[in-house]
Amino acid sequence: MTFRRTLHASLLAAFITAWLCFVWYWMFILFTDYEIPAEFSSLGIASSSLVGSLAAAFGFYILVITFKARPVYFKLIAMVLAILTVLPLIGDGVLPSGNVIPEGFLWLAVPMHLIAGVVIGGIIPWYVIKGLPEVEEVKA
Question: Rounded distance, CA 60 to CA 5, Å?
Fold first, then answer.
C-alpha cells in the first residue's frame, strides 16, 4: 500500500463520483425542467469531485496507512463529512457565493454530496487495500 496507489484510488473515485453526479445532474434537468443557477457548472462538479477525492486520499493515507486505523473509520468519516457539507445549504439557505438558494436547488445538490461521500468512502479503501492489482511497467 503506497501513496502512489492511494493517488490512483483517488483519481478513480473522482472519475466515478463526477460521472455519477453528471448523470444525476442531467436526469434532474431532464425530469424537472429545472433552471440551473449560473454558479453551478459541469466544471464545478468535476473539480469538486477531484479536490474532494484528493483530500480524502490524503486523509486515508494518514489515518489508515500511517496511523494503522481500521478502514471502517475512514468510511465513517467520509459519510459524516458528506452530510456536514450539506448542512450549510439546509441551515441558512445561502450559497457560498452569498446568493440565496433557488427553490429546488437542494434536490439537485444534496444527492451529489451524498454520492461523493459514498463513492469516495468506498472506492479509496477498496482500491488501496483489496482492489485492482498494480499495473507493472513494461520495460523496453
Answer: 12
Query: For residue 1, is pLDDT > 80?
Result: no
Q: Tell me the C-alpha to C-alpha distance, in Å, between residue 120 and each of 18, 59, 79, 80, 109.
A: 11, 11, 9, 12, 17
For 58-94, the pLDDT digits (tens) are 999 999 888 888 899 999 999 999 999 888 878 777 8
With CA atoms as reference, report the closest residue to 57 among 15, 6, 16: 6
What are the grid coordinates assigned to 15, written together?
A: 472519475
**Residue position matching grid coordinates 490524503:** 58
Contact 5, 123 (CB under 8 A): no
Amino acid letter at 60? F
